[in-house]
Structure formats: structure tokens, C-alpha cells
Amino acid sequence: MVCIFANGSYEEFVDVSRCEKIVAVDGGANYLRTRNIVPDFFIGDADSAKEETMEWLKQHGVTLKIFPKEKDEIDLELALREFEEEEKVVFGWKGDRLDMVLALFYLLRRFKNTILESPSLTVGYVEGAKTLSAVPGEKWSILPLGGDAEGVTLKGFKYTLEDAVMPITKPTV
Fold first, then answer.
1. CA–CA separation, 15 vs 128, rounded Å?
2. Relative to the CA of 135, which of 22, 51, 59, 66 has its CA 20 to 30 Å away?
3. What φ, ψ does residue 97 adopt, rounded to 5°?
4. According to the 3-state scheme, what is the secondary structure of the chain?
5. What is d(CA 1, CA 20) in angstroms, rounded to the nearest whole number?
6. What's the mean pLDDT in 87-110?
7. What is the C-alpha separation between 80 and 89, in angstroms, rounded?
8. Is residue 173 over pLDDT 50?
9. Mean pLDDT across the stretch 88-96?
10. What does the pLDDT read at residue 172?
């Protein structure tokens, strides 16, 4: 599992024991430095990482992939692309910039083997037939993002659906 640390908010300490690779995405390196978690990779344009964080990364021999500030991708997209074939979980993805959060939701369609995780919310992308397991009491939101979702079946939920269409203009939450 590739654990990617973005430049968003961190509600609590993140356990990295399941991480095979740790990737700091720009300002996400600041969080890792405060926790003394040395990443394997740094990816980004280094506009959000503090100068002392960049020095810390260099001192620890972290592989740095620094990109120009003017580019067509957001830093997190560069990290997702770098590890495209691997299972990924992204921490620190929630932040003050709604445009970045929305962009990331749409990137999930391209990088399907990616989960966004925080203590209060886990987000993933589903396409085609998929069985997901819920725990009683959990809150789920099922939202169509790229267009109407057809053939949606939800069993075991408070509101069930059978081969339903979920229009993008009337999401069911």
C-alpha cells in the first residue's frame, strides 16, 4: 500500500504501519516532519513545503521529484500518476480549498485504486458491479459524479434500491 500525505488538514495522528511506501506531496511533508515520519518520496513543486522541511528531507536522503510551479497538474495528481498501478490511500486530502477537493474527487475516476481517508470520512470510486460491506450505524453517501449512475442496487441500507437510476442532478444521500 502506498500512503500519500497531501497538504490538507490532519485531524489526528496517522498510523503508517500498513504503508509499504510513504509519499509526501508538497506541504504534506510538513506534517510528516512534525511526526518524524521520513517519507520515501517527495513529489510536488515545493511551494507549500517549508524550507526547513525541504532540508530535513534532503538530510534523510528522501527521493525528491520537484516539478515547476507552472504546470497543468496539481501536485497530488503527479503523485497519483507516479504510483498509478499501486493501491493508494491519501491522507490530508481535506483542506480549505474546495476546488482542490473537487478536483481530487474527479481524479478518483482516473486513479480507481485510490482511497481518500480521514478519521471522519472515507471516499472511493466505484464503477461497474461492486459489492461493498457496511457496518450497522455507518453513514454512507452514494453519489454519481460523471453522469447518471444506472443499475444501482443497495441492500441492507435504510433506503434500498434495486437496479435503479441515480441521476447526477438528483443525488441520493
1. 31
2. 22
3. -100, 100
4. CEEEECCCCCCCCCCCCCCCEEEEECCHHHHHHHCCCCCCEEEECCCCCCHHHHHHHHHCCCEEEECCCCCCCCHHHHHHHHCCCCCEEEECCCCCCHHHHHHHHHHHHHCCCEEEEECCEEECCCCCCCCCCCCCCCCCCCCCCCCCEEEEEECCCCCCEEEEEECCCCCCC
5. 5
6. 92
7. 10
8. no
9. 94
10. 60
What value does the mean pLDDT take over residues 90-118?
A: 92
Domains of the chain, with CATH numbers?
Answer: 2-123 (3.40.50.10240), 127-173 (no CATH)
CB-CB contact of 2 with 86 (8 Å): yes
pTM score of the predicted model = 0.89
Grid coordinates representing 134? Answer: 457496511
CA 158 from centroid of its chain's CA atoms:
28
Nearest by Cα to 122 from 165, 136, 108, 21 = 108
